[in-house]
Each structure stands twice: as C-alpha cells, then as structure tokens.
Amino acid sequence: MEPKISEKTWNPELEKEILKQWEDEKIYDFTPQEDNYTIDTPPPYPSGRPWHIGAAAHYSQIDMIARTARMAGKNVYFPIGIDRNGLPVELYTEKKHNIRMRETERGEFLNLCREALDDLEDEMILIMKSLGISGDFANYYRTDSEEYRSLTQSTFIELWKKGQVYLANRPNNYDWVSGTTIADAEITYEDLSTKLVYMKFKIKDTDKEIIIASTRPELLCACRTIIVNPEDQRYTQYIGQKVIIPITNVEVELRTHHSAKQEFGSGAVMVCSYGDQNDVVLFRELELGEIVAVGLDGKMTEAAGEYAGLKPKQARAKIIEDLETGGFLEKVEDIIHRTPISERSKIPIEIIPMEEYYLKQKEDVERIKKLGQEIIFHPPMHKQILMNWLESISIDWPISRRRYYGTEIPIWYCKNCSEPHVPEPGKYYRPWNEKCPINNCTKCDSAEFVGEERTFDTWMDSSVSPLFISKFGRDVEFFNKVYPTSIRPQAKDIVRTWLYYTILRCEQLTGEKPWSEAWIMGYGLDEKGMKMSKSKGNAIDPLPVIEKLGADTFRFWSASEINHGYDFRCNEQKIESTKKFLSKLWNISRFLSSFPIIESGKPNASDKWILSELDNLVKECKRGYDEYNFFVPAIAIREFTWNLFAAHYIEMVKARAYGIGFSDEERDGAIFTLHKALSTILKLLAPITPFITEHLWKVLYSEKSIHKERQVLSESPEDFTHLTKDITEFNSNVWNEKKSKELSLKDSIAVSVPERLSEFAKDFAAMHNLE
RNA sequence: GGGCUCAUAGUCCAGGUCGGUUAUGACGUCGCCCUUACACGGCGAAGAUCCGGGGUUCAAAUCCCCGUGGGCCCA
C-alpha cells in the first residue's frame, strides 16, 4: 500500500491551514450548559515589543489546560481579554510622542494612549492566535471598554455604599516641581554629594549625649523617635530612655530596630516624617503620628517653626548654622548619597502624606484565609505565597491613583460643602469630563459639583475579571451557570496582587470564592538564569521563533522543559532541537500510513508487551494531566515514542507488518497494534501539540478533529513491562555484536534468544536476521 | 532587612515525601553506519567531588543544621 504521507518532515507552514480550518469549523465554540469549565484567563498587557517569550510559554500552557479539560469531556469556556489600564502605556505614549501627560489635554492624551494600545494589541492577538490558543477570540474583551470599566465602577459603588471605602492620609512620592505624585516606577536613583550632619542629642535627666548623623537635619521638627540596632553595644544602656531633640526641645523615645545600621554614621538614626522610604515603613510599623514638615509647594510648613516657608535646601543650611550656634553640632562630613530623583523634573523627591481612598481589607483577612484553604493550588507549594502575604497585611488597600489612563473613580464633590456623591451603578462615568448625574447635594442642596480627577489602581479592574467573564450584573442566568469559575491560571510573581485582590473583591461582592483551582506558573528567565528585561537586552522575542519553528515546536518545548511551578530558562537553540521529536512522530506516522487500518487483531507476545507499556504511558499521562502539569506527559510520551515504540517495537514487527514470512493473522496483529499505539500517542499529545496531531489524525484516522475526541483511558491489560529491560538489552547486544564483527545490520548473525524471551523469538529472528 | 524557592555532566532536566542496584532522559560533542518511516535518522562512546561544610545512620543526591550563590515577591 502507498503511504498516505509522502513528505519527510513536519512542515510548520501547515499550521496556518489548520488554524483556518479550526476557525471555519468553530470547533472551540462555547454554549453554556449546566456544568461548565471556565478559565479565568489572565488578560495580557500590551506594553510594547517584544512580548516576553516566557509569557508566550505561559499562554501555550494555559491553552493546554483548556484542551486537556475539553478532552476530559468538560464544556470549556475560555475567554480572551486584553488588559489595557495603567501606567506602562502612559509612559510608552509620553516617550513615543515626546510629551508630558500632565502638560497634555486629558482627552487628547487618552486618545494617544488608546492608539498605542491598539497597535500593540493587534500584534499580541496575532501571536496568541498563531500559538494555537483555542480561546474565544471572536468575543475578546478589553479592560478599558465601557462595559468593563462600568463593572469596575459599579462594584466600587456597591462597596462604597456598604461603607468599605474610606479616605486617609498616606505618604506619597511627590515631585513639587511638576506638582504631582509619582509612581515608584518613575523614580530613578542618583549618587549626589551632600552633607552628613552629626548632631548632639541630650539624654533626658542625665548629662550624657548621643550623636546622630543625618542628611536631612531640616526634618528635626518631624522627628518622632530615635532607633539603634538591637545588637549595638554602644546604646544598650539608653534603650527606652527619652532623648531631647536639639532646636525644638521635643522629647522622643530611643528604641531598637534592625534596620539601623551600626556602621553608618554613629549607628543611631533619627526617624522623621519622611526622610526616606524606610521612615515610611517605621512610622507605620511603630505607629508613630506623622508631622508634615514639607508642603505641596515644596517649602517647609508651619510645623518647621522659624524655618517655615524655606525650601528644604535653604532650611538645611540655616539649621546647620543654628545647630553650631547652639552647640549641638559635632561635625559635618561631605558624602555621596544615593538619592531618589524624579525621572521627569530631575529633582530629589519629597515624601508627603496625601489624602487617598482606601478599600478595607484588614478585617477580611481571616475569611480570605479560609477561602484560600479551600482553593486547590497547582502546584500545592505556591499556596504558601498567598498565606504568607495574608499574614503580613498591615494596612488597607490604597485604591486611588493620580493618573489618567485608568478607570475613573466615580465620585462628584459638592462645590459648596465638599460632600462626596457616588452615582447609581450600571453606567460608565467620567467625572473629570461629565456633568454630575445627581442634581442637588444631599447635604446642602447645592446644585454645583466638581468631578473627581483620580483613577483606580489597575488591580481594581483586574480583580473583577472572574465577574466580568461570567457577566456579573449583566446576565443572571449566564452568571449562575458559570460562577464560581473553575480555574485561575497565572504567574507566580503576581500571587500577592492579582490572585489575592481577586479573592478579596469577589468575596466582598459575592460571598463566594472566584474559582475552585489556582494554577501557578514559574518565571521565564534568560539562558543564564537572569531575569529578562528590555534594558538588559536579554529579552527574547517570541514571534520570530514561532514563525520559524512553528507553534507546536514551541509548545512542546514549553511542556517538556518546564516543570510546573518552577522557574525556567529560555534558550532558542533548545527550542529548535525540540523540533526533532515532531519530526520523529511525523516519520512514524508516515511509516504507519502505508498500512491499512485494522479494527481488531490478535496480538502476539511483542504486541502485548508494547500494549502494556502503552497502558503505563496512558496512566502516567493521566497523572500529569489531572494536575495540569504538562511536563509529565510530555517527557513520558517522548520517552515511550522514541525509545521504546520506534527504537524497539517498530523494528521488531516491521517484517511481520509487511507479511514477510508470517501468516495473515500474525501480520494483522502487528498492524492493529501499531495503529493502536500511534492513535493513542496522538490523542495523548493533542493538548500539547494541537497542530501536528490534528494533521496526522485527519490523514490517518478520521475526518473529524482530534480535538473533539475524548482522552484515552487505561485498559489495564496483562502486564509485560517486567520484560522491557530484557528486550531492549537483547536488541542492544545483537547490535553491538554486529558492530564488533563489522557486519551490516541486515547481515545474518548467530545469537541465541534467552529462554525468558522465547515467546519473542520469531520477531527477533526476523528483526536481526538471526541464523 | 523579611518570606518563598532553586542548586545534579559543556547545557537543560528526572530521582528527593518513603535513605539501599551501575544516578534518568534530552540537547551538544566524538566515532561508526544510508538497514525498504525518518541522516531533522540509527548504533555506540566519552562526559557528574549530585554547590560547600558539618551532623544523623551499617548506608545520604535523598533526612537535619550552618554557609555560599541564583530567582521571585515584599519591605
């Protein structure tokens, strides 16, 4: 019989045709039923080229989850979304057009951001599609759509009405030159020369003094405590005593804290609101009351007494003089200090408390812990990341941001009495640009309002993704069928943010957990194990790799190289060499395509042996697929297919399959077994490499898609696997024997088959041309 | 500074819970071989102080302790 396959290798170009077939036949369409398997897909953020190769691997594996579930007979809902809110696109747009967000008209700036996102998004969708992602691209959603943002706002309004939201002061990075708060991402550090001032502080009720060194002596008025390292012998005797601050004469306590470095300055540190980020931490940790020493105009406040109105630098010069006059100055050193600088105006930032909105979370921690216990984690060890985080929550969640490209906080303030008003939920509101939908102030009846200008932290949007995809508040019937969803696949580095905030918000809004399983993937590193980043230049662009080698090669690499939950290294050459396995599979199929399909046959000993090894493979794959750990089936399938099926079994039965020297019944037993093994391999592999398995399946076995098949189940046949080692060793011995005698493989040789393998003697004789 | 996690041939990875053969497989390297599925192949070879130090034990890659180095998150 002529082989149905003539080409010698798998051609990745075929993927494009297969993709088109899938799209035309809509084989992944979803119609909700009573039982559904919903994937809370992470919406990727189009932040600029190239997309991270680790992310491409990540999405390939999420698709394997969907395909595994489908083949297990589940009704899979696999939505696709794009995350478009937040800082990265603002920075990208500023750079691209060489503009400043706050110097650009807001509406115009938002349009520019949207255009940038559209371009980046197109490419991202293209990559996801060409990876073979079987999600619902026809209905893909965007987190900046009216529908999505109205959900974010509605859920906020609901929580506001329940009293879960409040205003509070919180220290912020502040750039007083451009008059804005800035995000941590916009801070750079520069080594600047400055003066380290050594000051004398009196210990109360003694004649002793301690020396404290600081680069910010103008903040003396905001000093609330002095810390020393608990192991610093010099200060042990003063712990718990009062210390008198020079100039202000205020008394503060001296206490220990591990963040004080013995070798820096005198080892004693004054803690002021706020000299640096460590002060912020200490004020929170030690629950100190803050004193605002620097105002929004960048000048010293009234709290600074006679220094009020001066810029911090001027105040510093003056206070050094005054310290000297008062006899409080020990010495002044010139040092190089690593100083946080605003990326935009290049001046040192100030940390200033500002009023922001908070969402209550502290009182929810115990409930979230309980839900966390109920959620199954893959792998289980990563549940610990969530639990540790829950243990360490000490403040509520600050949710307001002074940014533009995000969901607007839907609040209007009465112009007369400042009373905040939230509108009715269900619509998308833009208070900075819209008239207040409420006519009169509920408190003073005034008719004039000012819209809130701030936006939400983007996690406020992302954390309602399970509610959005299940049409919460939009379609009750759909919601009831789909929520709680089944699984949340995501990366390890955002467990503390996305995963945690989602549980928090969904619990607050529905009283239920958002999903029953969480699937946590490790981090993609470069070939040396370093984090990939554009600035380091070690980032690998996935698109050319996929175009060159095909999605299946990339996907099989991702499955066979990445043990689930662990970090992994990305290496182009390794990806390339994975292609060989697909080539092997292709040629096995090519060989089998020259034999007819036989529905049943009478297996002999060799056939029974490979069928029992095949059954082991089925069990092993099930073990991996049940945990959505694709490393297990990928390795097992490659091992079986290459090293047992192709290397030994096919060679053993080749002559029998051709019918040379064997009866028809013996021949059919071989052909039956060959096809049974290959069709099983294809089905086992289908979730990992959907393209090549689809192609081979259709050429060999069925007009219907392999992706409509159910996964193979174990049949637990008679076990012959104890003979595997004997069989492979016997073959090896014969090959070595021929080699040492300089015989060709087809030459005959006199080797006797060992007693325990006597059942296999006829196949061995044909295989090795035994005399 | 805190938490989690990892460390096995030139490279990647298995084994580790439950200590006991010659430490798994792949990539790469080298040698031989076109044998009617595949030279993107076959057969074979070389290549590992299982990160370092200490402990428990008859026995440690595996269990315990202390280091060192990488990664992630938080501060």
Q: Could you give a short description of this structure?
A:
This protein has 771 residues and is an alpha/beta fold.
Strand content: 15-25%
Instruction: Give the CA-based shape.
Output: elongated
Number of helices: 22
Helical content (DSSP H or I, runs of 4+): 25-40%
Low-confidence stretches: none
List keywords for this structure.
alpha/beta, Rossmann fold, Isoleucyl-tRNA Synthetase, domain 2, 4 domains, 25 strands, elongated, RNA-binding
Descriptive account of the structure:
With 771 residues, this protein is an alpha/beta fold. The chain is elongated and about 110 Å long. The strands form eight sheets. Strands 7, 8, 9, 10, 11, 12 and 13 form a seven-stranded mixed sheet that branches. A four-stranded antiparallel sheet has the order 6-5-14-16. The chain is built from 22 helices and 25 strands. Strand 1, helix 2 and strand 2 form a beta-alpha-beta unit. It has four domains: 31-158 and 460-558, 3-Layer(aba) Sandwich (Rossmann fold); 180-352, Alpha-Beta Complex (Isoleucyl-tRNA Synthetase, domain 2), CATH 3.90.740; 410-453; 585-768, Isoleucyl-tRNA Synthetase, Domain 1 (Orthogonal Bundle). The protein binds one RNA strand of 75 nucleotides through helix 6, helix 9, helix 13, strand 25 and helix 16.
